[in-house]
Design a protein that fits this description.
The protein is of the alpha/beta class and about 375 residues long. The protein has 2 domains: about 290 residues, Aldolase class I (TIM Barrel); about 55 residues, DNA polymerase, domain 1, CATH 1.10.150. The protein is about 35% helix and about 20% strand. It has 12 helices and 12 strands. α5 packs parallel to α6 and α10 packs parallel to α11. The N terminus is likely disordered.
Length: about 375
């Protein structure tokens, strides 16, 4: 069992379905390894800088479009260093053209989603870190699919590159650079820690080492994998940590987030506090409001007490229900009361602008339809 999956304490029910290794890609390589990769293909080392400037600096992954590579060299780079990793099998637009959900098929048939969302002042991409998810949260469409496998570093990075291209082309409104990335798509990012960490460097490191995006515009979510939360803090990258809490008490959270049996609420918040101490960054508490399950007044009060004197912001999420599920969104009046009680306790709180309700918008729904 890999180090990443061993950390989760969960089974890997679908991982054996993976038939062949993911092809090696330029985005898998750190800057120190890129010169060696081109040398292995019989090319001078300066080609590594050229390739990186095209891929990370210009968001281009088609060597045949590059004017500084001859036809034979371009073909060699394409075949050996730039294999196609994501094939679009579905894309659905909504929210008056400001949201696009894409489904990608990977080389082995696994399916993942990403979402591009345009706002008046920014464009945000929501990306996946795993095909499926092994955490098993009962209200989550992805959690009901089980875990197929971890994504490679390059499969994660390619979602970002393609989002950058789409944003620049005005795919979700006016032309705008991709400004924000949230690791809130399919999977538990910290269960695929090493590849997510490498992907963060590709996203944040300045070109030509990476895309040069601001670390402060990137959010990494977790259900509360305590050892990996601490490892993320030690990376020294000031990304925002988002903790999917969903309940202030262990009794309910054991049901909503089964990994709570291993790392209960107190331990998760202590790790988040440690993250804030090391990075100086406020963390986010993600809380999906579920009707008559976790939206009671007393739970709002309990959450307010729990978060007192912490460097934290609460992001309440109207649940995006899945067809046939008994879980559904809270009544708007209950949402408003929950917000009011948290704010009265002095806790910074917002209600997320939910996108994609009319397009199988809950995470994992659209991908499941393509299986």
């Amino acid at each position: 069992m890999s180090e990443d999956l061993a950390l989760t304490g969960i089974t890997e029910p679908e991982k054996r379905k993976r038939a062949t290794p993911t092809p090696s890609h330029w985005a898998d390589l750190d800057p120190a390894d890129r010169a060696g990769a081109v040398a292995d293909l019989g090319m001078p080392r300066f080609r590594a800088d050229q390739i990186s400037r095209h891929y990370f600096g210009r968001d281009s992954a088609d060597p045949e479009e590059w004017t500084d590579l001859s036809g034979s060299l371009a073909e060699k780079v394409r075949d050996q260093l730039m294999p196609a990793l994501l094939s679009e099998v579905a894309v659905v637009d909504c929210d008056n053209g400001t949201t696009a959900k894409q489904v990608w098929r990977l080389h082995d048939g696994a399916v993942v989603e990403s979402v591009l969302m345009g706002y008046t002042d920014r464009v945000t991409a929501c990306i996946s870190s795993q095909a499926g998810c092994g955490i098993g949260c009962p209200f989550c469409a992805t959690g009901q699919q089980g875990l197929t496998r971890n994504l490679s570093t390059a499969e994660i990075v390619e979602q970002v590159r393609l989002a950058r291209v789409a944003a620049g082309e005005g795919r979700v409104g006016k032309r705008h650079r991709l400004s924000n990335i949230v690791f809130m798509g399919m999977g538990e990012p910290l269960a695929n820690f090493s590849r997510v960490a490498d992907a963060l460097h590709r996203i944040i490191d300045p070109a030509p080492a990476g895309f040069g995006m601001s670390a402060r515009s990137i959010t990494v979510s977790t259900v509360g994998m305590v050892p990996s939360m601490l490892k993320l803090a030690d990376l020294g990258l000031p990304v925002t940590l988002a903790v999917s809490l969903h309940a202030p008490d262990d009794e309910l959270r054991d049901t909503l987030v089964p990994i709570n049996h291993r790392w209960p609420v107190t331990e998760v918040l202590e790790a988040a506090d440690r993250y804030a101490d090391i990075t100086g960054r406020r963390y986010s508490i993600e809380y999906a409001l579920i009707r008559n399950i976790n939206d009671q007044d007393w739970r709002a009060d309990a959450l307010g007490v729990l978060l007192q004197n912490r460097l934290v912001h609460v992001n309440l999420i109207p649940l995006n229900p899945t067809p046939g599920s008994r879980w559904t969104a809270s009544d708007p009046k209950d949402e408003a009361e929950f917000i009011s009680r948290l704010r009265a306790a002095g806790i910074s709180t917002t209600l997320r602008d939910t996108r994609g309700r009319e397009i199988d918008g809950a995470c994992g729904q659209l991908a499941a339809a393509q299986q």
